[in-house]
Amino acid sequence: MTAFLLAIVVTGSVFGDLLKAHAMRKQGSPRSFRGRALSRYAVNTLRSSWFLAALLAYTASFFGFMALVSIRDVSFAVPATALAYVLETLLSRWFLREHVSGRRWAGAVLVVAGVCLIV
User: Fold this and answer.
1) Longest Cα pair distance anywhere in the chain, in angstroms?
2) What is the spatial distance between Cα 106 and Cα 14, in angstroms, rounded to a whole number?
3) Taking the CB of residue 61, how many other CB atoms lie within 10 A of it?
4) Alpha-carbon gap, residue 11 to 117, rounded angstroms
5) What is the per-residue pLDDT across 33-90, written as a single tens digit (0 to 9) for each?
6) What span, in angstroms and rounded, lies between the C-alpha atoms of 96 and 110?
7) Could you tell me the CA-to-CA distances from 53 to 10, 49, 75 in Å, in that order?
8) How far is CA 71 from the centre of its chain?
9) End-to-end alpha-carbon separation of the chain, Å?
10) Which of 2, 9, 17 is nearest to 91 (CA)?
11) Handedness of CA 85, 86, 90, 95 (dihedral sign)
């Protein structure tokens, strides 16, 4: 059950972040930081199917985390969910076509090592 809940949390978090990043890249930045322009920007963002899918993924992750901490210690749950950082690094490289430096890859490897220490 722990592995299943951890998978829900990590998957929801990863896909939420990737979908949100994609939505915001398609949306662009606000044209102005005045009230009316920001209101239009917020409404357009909330109408984005990519953004709504991100909210759904975050919701699954949130409830999965609540269930996880109900059966496992927080000192396990929080570090174990850090696997999301590694998957986000991999998937942002492949799907979002981001440049990932060697230093970032090294950081991802260190996160995996840290998670292995707590499991």
Assistant:
1) 50
2) 19
3) 22
4) 21
5) 888 888 899 899 999 999 999 999 999 999 999 999 999 999 999 988 988 988 999 9
6) 23
7) 16, 6, 30
8) 23
9) 14
10) 17
11) negative
Angle at 14 between CA 10 and CA 15, to 5 degrees: 120
* 76-98 pLDDT, tens digit each: 999 889 889 889 999 999 988 89
Residues in the chain: 119
What sign for the dihedral angle of Cα 24, 27, 31, 36?
A: negative
Rounded Cα distance, 66 and 111, in Å: 22
Reading the block at residue 14, the tokens are 């990863």
Structure tokens, 4: 């299943």
Q: What are phi and psi of 100, to 5 degrees?
A: -120, 115
